[in-house]
Amino acid sequence: MAGSKSEIGEQEAPAGPPGGGLLAPDEPGAFAVTNPAGRSSAVLVCDHASNRTPRCLGTLGLGPADLLSHIAWDPGAAMVARRLSELLDAPLVESGYSRLVIDCNRPLDSPESIPEQSAGVSIPGNRRLSAEDRARRIEALFTPYHDAIRKVVDARGDRPGLLLSIHSFTPVFGGRRRPWSIGLSYGRDERLVKLLLGAMTGDETVQVGENEPYSIDDETDYTIPVHGEARGLPHVLIEIRQDLLTTPADAARWAGRLAEAFRRIEPAALRLR
Ligand SMILES: [Zn+2]
Asked: Which of 18, 65, 124, 189 has the fewest CB atoms found within 10 Å of its own CB?
């Protein structure tokens, strides 16, 4: 019961810092929402926007080069997402911390949720975690981020929404060069991707991959299955190749292309529901 006294012998839990004890009061929040009341039908999310780690976890035992690399975040993705938010007047929810602390686009029972290694790099700060350590990361970072997305979608009321999830991918994987400039991916619902593919095929300088380099599934994804598929929101996972996305000018170019394609398909996309 709200406001009831604790049982005899039970300690009242201290209020603690916001963020479930993982984040100090002066650290950035678990997520950032830009333009929550944006008028676009697009709702933008960026799961791997940041390579920040909570101060109390240090660098997870990693050197600066690893924390700057793609294992920690999707370099450039947040730049594209922010610019696209401006161009479309769309709300954007970004995760505030590195995927190595907890990956906001992995189910909580996935071994990649709090990875002990990533792309051959061992992550000392993720080894031998207790159930409490895991719970703190979930409570402080994962849950607030997904609650924020839910809130932005809920706030639309009856206005239809289209979910765009912005990522970036490494140009070489497993020794193989990836040819696509950009990939548009889906799992159970291909509809928005098919429309967007049609709108992006005109530019010969851009090689668009369909379900490349990844498709979406319940084992390796969380955001689209939960906020898109389960809610019946048409969606697309957008992956941009990182060597084509290294400067703000690159990001502006990608955002411009995506905004133009999105505007072209928006009327048809809104009829998908
Ligand atoms: Zn990503």
From this structure: 65
CA angle 235, 237, 242 (to 5 degrees): 155
Q: What distance in angstroms lies between residue 143's CA and the mean position of ligand 1's atoms?
A: 18
Ligand 1 center to 270 CA (angstroms): 26
The model's pLDDT over 138-156, given as tens digits with 9 standing for 90+, comes to 999 999 999 999 999 999 9
In 10 A of CB 64, how many CB atoms? 8
> Which among 86, 90, 133 is positioned nearest to 113, based on CA atoms?
133
Chain segment 16-73, per-residue pLDDT in tens = 344 458 999 999 999 999 999 999 999 999 999 999 999 999 999 999 999 999 999 9
Would you list the DSSP string of 132-146? HHHHHHIIIIIHHHH
Domain ranges of the chain: 31-270
Which spans in the chain are helix H?
64-68, 77-88, 131-137, 143-154, 191-200, 223, 248-270
Q: Which residue has the tokens 């035992």?
A: 61
Q: Which two tokens stand for residue 224?
A: 């689209």
CA distances from residue 14 to 11, 17, 20 in whole angstroms, order as listed:
9, 9, 11
| 3-state class (DSSP) for residue 33 | strand
From ligand 1's centre to the CA of 3, what distance in Å?
42
For the beta carbon of residue 115, count every other beta carbon within 10 angstroms.
Answer: 19
Q: CATH number of the domain at 31-270, please?
A: 3.40.630.40
Q: From CA 211, how far away is CA 197, in angstroms rounded?
A: 11
Indicate yes or no: pTM above 0.70. yes
